[in-house]
Design brief:
The structure holds two protein chains of two kinds.
Chain A lengths: L6 E9 L6 H7 L39 H18 L9 E6 L5 H9 L6 H4 L4 H4 L8 E8 L5 H14 L5 E8 L3 H9 L23 E9 L11 E10 L12 H14 L8 E3 L6 H15 L12 H4 L6 H15 L1 E2 L20 E2 L7 E8 L3 E9 L3
Parallel strand pairs in A: 2-3, 2-4, 7-10
Antiparallel strand pairs in A: 1-5, 1-6, 4-5, 6-11, 8-9, 10-11
Helix pairs in contact in A: 8-9
Chain B lengths: L3 E9 L24 H4 L10 H12 L10 E6 L5 H14 L16 H10 L4 E5 L5 H14 L5 E8 L13 E8 L8 E9 L8 H9 L2 H4 L2 E6 L14 E5 L5 H11 L6 E6 L2 E8 L1
Parallel strand pairs in B: 2-3, 2-4, 7-8, 7-9
Antiparallel strand pairs in B: 1-5, 1-6, 4-5, 6-10, 9-10
The chains are: A alpha/beta, B alpha/beta.
């Protein structure tokens, strides 16, 4: 039997409301979050009924708020540089590229329409960045290059497809990017679906009313373990993958969480780790009443009730729901927690007693003397569920 | 990487009949009433669905079910238009009538994966459900991901769909509307043949095939190599290496993902050995048959 290729996470990049790089994102998780910008989304101003709040990119990255291509190039460059510092030179590898996004560069056509200009598809195709990005990167992209658009789980779907590409021998390294900018059509659609909280993003909070959208992009470099040079290092190893589809409702989760649970259990089985061996969980946690409740019930059914459960680190209160990028930000938070052996407090002011999970709650060091494990989940519109298990390096 | 068997297929598109074994003559213009949702989708509340979803549902229903448990059925859908047309319409609705003019029931159509979501519900595909939206090649990429779903043992069958709806007037590009559905399986059924990935990647900056693809093509048995078909987007320069049998080139002048896959169907349904490649901009995918 051929042994499957191990895949390592070798480089990271990030740009979001909390800052324009990985460290700014990580440090923000140790502070109470800033609320959304009340005027983040520009609309037509027709009836005054639309909500405009959202988490915009940090001021230091304001020039990227209307530049989707520039944003994904920026985070990809950060990740490539990070991988190089760890000893992984992508320019010597057969490297592919996958973009996970909910709406791509939808803002380009929106802006043109606002300006009274035509929005021709060849120029405004929201997914054409897959053809324009490679020439902006400092490495040759010779492997597969494609876009996945699986709503809010697009980032993790992209990551899993990238892992499969590496394991199939079609690339030695993959640049995985999750990215979305704010869009007035998305904002209006979410508001009509009563999926927005009018105040702030409050995952697992008793007062939550929905999510708040955020813009951002995050990038990972995946490399085949066999392709590592002797001195190269990695932040962590991708040890388990589980996928499923609710096939239940276009936007609402199946209330029993049957398929979310199946993906989670499959990821643990794939990693050959028992639930009580997991050190931290980074959930999807959108702040939407039904989603958080379903996800909490699933976590309790797999990991046990809150007292026994590993700490749950929820990040969307800090950066908003970054849609297609959100799963990659969750991986980033988990990988950094494993690498730095520290769990930030996260933020939940008034935890919902009906959700039986154990929120991280305070900054805490993680165990020393043994490898650490993290679980990351994403659940998107369409019931698209992905769970991953990450393994940190030996101490 | 081992492949997957192509079991069945069905298409719903203007000018395309049941026989997919020859390259269709795409109509120069499309009758807006070419698709009768009431007749094609009995029992479906289709009024609030977008066209891509309607077409994908119809094609998927036409593509015969082959018994497999829901947890073992994957769905991979390719669409290059994605959510662009819906967003165009919604944005104009917002501009004219504000938030209340937007239908709550139709609001989920802003999601590019809405068609896949509805088909997954209708066909009960619980293994995974992925939507790819890369320009032109999204249908071929969905085929590749469907094969991967089987190869990685996440599924035993994959329903692969390419589906598109028309672009808004003045979009400056032509897209053939409709859908095609292909059923892939781990095991053979009837006279279906096995399909394997031959290559997936990017050409070099000058349109030359990558070294990897050239090696893969050179290693292919001559019976396959002599029947190489290349589906290429109009205006995409491809330099074919000397020494390899020159392919039959099918140029496709369409901005969607459906037309290119329809162009490839006669090859995919051919029982003789073949190599099939598709190229857009600098991206390529390539498959080889294995009976």
């Amino acid at each position: 039997m051929i042994r499957r290729r191990d895949v390592l996470l070798a480089g990271f990049g990030a740009c979001c409301a909390a800052g324009a790089d990985v460290d700014a994102f990580w440090q923000s998780l140790f502070r109470p979050p800033e609320g959304p910008d009340p005027e983040a989304v520009v609309d037509w101003g027709v009836d005054g009924r639309s909500w405009h709040h959202g988490h915009r990119l940090a001021d230091s990255a304001r020039h990227l708020r209307t530049d989707f291509d520039g944003l994904i190039a920026d985070v990809a460059q950060q990740a490539i540089d990070d991988a190089r510092r760890r000893g992984h030179a992508l320019d010597t590898m057969h490297t592919g590229l996958v973009l996970g996004t909910a709406a791509g560069n939808a803002g380009s056509a929106e802006q043109r329409r606002l300006d009274g200009m035509a929005a021709p598809f060849p120029v405004c195709n929201p997914y054409r960045a897959i053809d324009t990005l490679p020439s902006r990167l400092p490495v040759q992209v010779s492997g597969p290059a494609f876009v996945t658009a699986n709503a809010c789980s697009a980032g993790l779907y992209a990551l899993v497809h990238a892992v499969d590409v590496i394991r199939a021998g079609m690339a030695d390294a993959m640049i995985v990017i999750g990215a979305d900018l704010l869009s007035r059509v998305t904002q209006a659609g979410f508001q009509r679906m009563t999926a927005l909280d009018p105040q702030r993003c409050r995952p697992f909070d008793a007062r939550r009313q929905g999510t708040v959208l955020g813009e951002g992009a995050a990038a990972l470099i995946l490399v085949a373990d066999s392709g590592c040079a002797g001195s190269a290092s990695a932040a962590c190893r991708l040890s388990g993958i589980g996928m499923s589809c609710d096939a239940y409702h276009p936007t609402s989760p199946e209330p029993d969480g049957r398929d979310i649970s199946r993906a989670l259990r499959e990821a643990l089985r794939d990693a050959n780790i028992a639930p009580d061996g997991v050190d931290v969980i980074v959930p999807h946690g959108t702040g939407t009443p039904a989603n958080d409740r379903t996800e909490g019930d699933v976590l309790a059914s797999v990991f046990g009730q809150s007292a026994n459960m590993p700490p749950v680190l929820s990040i969307k209160a800090h950066i908003g729901h970054t849609a297609g990028a959100s799963g990659i930000f969750s991986v980033l938070a988990a990988a950094l927690a494993l690498a730095r052996r520290q769990i930030p407090a996260g933020y939940c002011e008034c935890a919902d007693p009906a959700i039986p999970i154990r929120l991280a709650g305070r900054d805490a060091p993680m165990a020393s003397g043994r490898p650490l494990w993290a679980v990351v989940s994403a659940c998107g519109f369409g019931g698209n569920n992905v769970s991953l298990v990450l393994q940190g390096g030996a101490p | 990487m081992s492949g997957a068997h192509l079991l069945t297929c069905a298409a719903v598109a203007p000018g395309v009949g049941e026989d997919l074994s020859r390259v269709p003559d795409f109509p120069p213009s499309v009758d807006p009433d070419w698709f009768d949702a009431a007749q094609r989708l009995p029992g479906v509340r289709h009024r609030y669905l977008n066209d891509t979803t309607r077409y994908a549902l119809a094609a998927a229903r036409q593509c015969a079910d082959v018994g497999v448990s829901p947890e073992r059925l994957a769905l991979c859908l390719g669409t290059s238009v994605g959510d662009a047309s819906v967003r165009h319409v919604f944005d104009h609705t917002l501009a004219r009538g504000g938030l209340d003019a937007l239908s709550t029931v139709s609001a989920p159509n802003i999601s590019a994966n809405i068609a896949a979501a509805h088909v997954a519900i209708d066909r009960q595909a619980h293994a995974l459900c992925s939507t790819v939206t890369s320009p032109f090649l999204a249908g071929f990429e969905a085929l590749m991901l469907g094969m991967q779903a089987i190869q990685t043992r996440r599924a035993d069958h994959a329903l692969v769909i390419a589906a598109e709806e028309a672009l808004p007037e003045g979009a400056g590009a032509a897209v053939l509307p409709g859908a095609i559905a292909l059923r892939l399986g781990r095991g053979a059924s009837g006279n279906g043949h096995r399909l394997q990935p031959l290559g997936w990647g990017r050409l070099d900056p000058h349109g030359q095939l990558s070294e990897r693809l050239i090696v893969a093509l050179a290693r292919a048995p001559s019976a396959h190599a002599e029947r190489t078909r290349l589906v290429v987007a109009a205006g995409t320069p491809v330099t074919w290496p000397k020494g390899l049998p020159f392919p039959e080139v099918l140029t496709c002048n369409d901005a969607g993902a459906l037309a290119p896959l329809l162009c490839a169907m006669p090859t995919l349904l051919d029982h003789r050995p073949f190599i099939l490649a598709a190229v857009y901009a600098h991206r390529y995918v390539a498959f080889i048959s294995d009976r």
